[in-house]
Every structure is written in C-alpha cells, then in structure tokens.
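Subject: Predicted fold for Ferric uptake regulation protein, 166 residues

User T.R. writes:
Posting the sequence so we have a shared reference for the thread.
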Amino acid sequence: MTFSQKNAQKEPSQQTMQVESLFKASMKEEAYRCTRERLVILREIYESDSHLDADEIFVRLKKKEISVSRATVYHTLDLLFKFNLVNKIDLGHKHTHYEKSYGVDNHLHIICEDCERVVEVQSDELNKILEKLCQKNGFTLGSFSLQVFAKCREAQNDTRHGNMKP
Ligand SMILES: [Zn+2]
Ligand SMILES: [Zn+2]
Ligand SMILES: [Zn+2]
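User M.O. replies:
I've generated the structure tokens; pasting them so everyone works from the same file.
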C-alpha cells in the first residue's frame, strides 16, 4: 500500500470490495484459481456505470496497461455470470453486454434504436406487475433485467437521419 497521490489508482468502492470477497469465496468453493486477472475484470465492471461488452473491457484494461487475454475476459465473464455477480444484457448489438448485479436494484433498460442511448429506469409499479405475473404462473420473482427498444426524442426530431421525404 502506498499513500502517494501520484499515479494512485482510484480506491475501489465498498460495494466493489464486498463483491470481490464474494467472488473469491465462490471461486474457492468451486476450486477455481483466484487470479489477479479475474479480480481486475470484476473491478472494471463494478467501478463502471456503463454496460460493457467483452471487447470494451479488454480495451479498457489494455489502456491501463493491464495485459489480459480476450479469452480470459470471456471466461471470467462466464464465471461472474455463473456466480450471479453480473447480468447479461442485449442492447441489440450482435454480442452480449454485461453490468454489475450485486447490490443493484432490478431495472429496465430503454435503448434508442437510432442513437443507442441507454437509460436505466427503476419502477416499483413494474416490480409489482412482474411479481403478479410470476405469481399467476406459479413463480416467485427473482431478479430481472429488461430491455425495451424505442426511439428517443432527439432521434425523432433529427431529420438528417432516415429517408423521410418532406
Ligand atoms: Zn456492443
Ligand atoms: Zn436516440
Ligand atoms: Zn443497467
């Protein structure tokens, strides 16, 4: 530990530290090797507020001069998903995006089909509806991550896009 402010990495949040110990415990339980690379990938996801894909994580780490292979990124993401520490999301790209799930409330993603803007919405009403729907079908609601594809206002007002005739 260094107390120097120079080149100091941002201290991980308490949530990140908690998830790290959960991850370590799960790996130990299932006899996975707890490597520095795996922890670095977990930290990258939990210290970010966006929905990253495997390639984005790889590039971010590369920029920080942390060398991790693409295969390790993919494998670690699978592991994190298996341990319920990340959610998979479909943003309409041809690959999967990931986001932190531990300590995060269930939410809805509204994704703009034109500009790919993503807005996260939490709604008690939606929670209640989903709870009811699950109950009706003999289930108890667990976690969820929903995607809705829509068009944002900016895109609709932007006449440069699309082939709309006046
Ligand atoms: Zn993507
Ligand atoms: Zn848009
Ligand atoms: Zn989200």
